Every structure is written in C-alpha cells, then in structure tokens.
Amino acid sequence: MTAGRVDTAVADLSALVEVLRTVGQERYATFFDGVIGDLRHADDPGEVREAAARGLAAFGGMNSVNDLVVMDGSVPDIENNRAIDERREAVYDALTHLI
Fold first, then answer.
1. Which of 3, 37, 52, 99 is the most buried (most CB within 10 A)?
2. Which pLDDT score, from 0 to 100, does residue 69 have?
3. pTM tops 0.85
4. 42 has pLDDT over 70
5. What is the pLDDT of residue 99?
6. Of 45, 47, 56, 50, nearest to 93 (Cα)?
C-alpha cells in the first residue's frame, strides 16, 4: 500500500466534505472528517484498511450517503447533487483501493 493512495483518498474525502458542508450536511461531513483523521494517523497497513472500511460502511444500508439527495425547496438541487455524486464516487473508489 502506498502513501500516494492514502493521499488520494484524503484529498477525495476532503473534497466531498467541502461540498457536504456547503449544502448543510454536517453529519456526513463530520463522519468523513473522522475517516480523514484515521487515515492520516494510521501507523500501519492494518489501520489504513480499518479506516477505509469504516469509510466504506457509510455507503451501504438504509440512510447511507448513497441515499443523500439535496433539495432546493421541493426541487432537487441538480448542481450540488452532481458535485456530491462525483466526489462520492471518487471517495468510494479511493477507499476500495485501500482495502
């Protein structure tokens, strides 16, 4: 496992957190901030895998980050939803490469 992959995951997570905070999704932003911290402080490959697995857990099940749709009143906020989708996909890919 290379430091480059961890750096990529941290960058992708940070970009997702930024968008989540912009649209008021503090719960998800705080969760992913924790994953970033875990990745930055991981001392061995096992800790990196554990942090990645914790991040990936947010993508499954009911009320997961995959279920997030940002609304503007009663209309989907297309621009922000696209931004979230792009970053969400990048995060998922980056984290799977750390497992």
1. 52
2. 94
3. yes
4. yes
5. 93
6. 56
- Contact of 16 with 87, CB cutoff 8 Å: yes
**With contact defined as beta carbons under 8 Å apart, do 6 and 42 qualify?**
yes
Length of the chain (residues): 99
Is there a contact between 10 and 36 (Cβ–Cβ < 8 Å)? Answer: yes
The C-alpha atoms of residue 61 and residue 46 are separated, in whole angstroms, by: 24
Q: Which amino acid is at 48?
A: V
Residue 90 amino acid letter = A
Q: Which residues lie across from 75 on neighbouring strands? A: 72
* C-alpha 1, offset from chain centre: 19
The H-or-E segment that residue 76 falls in is strand 75-76
> What's the confidence (pLDDT) of residue 61?
87
Cβ partners under 8 Å of residue 81, min gap 6: 69, 70
Asked whether residue 2 carries a pLDDT value surpassing 80, the answer given is: no
The span from the CA of 13 to the CA of 79, in Å, is 19
Q: Quick one: average pLDDT of 33-57?
A: 97
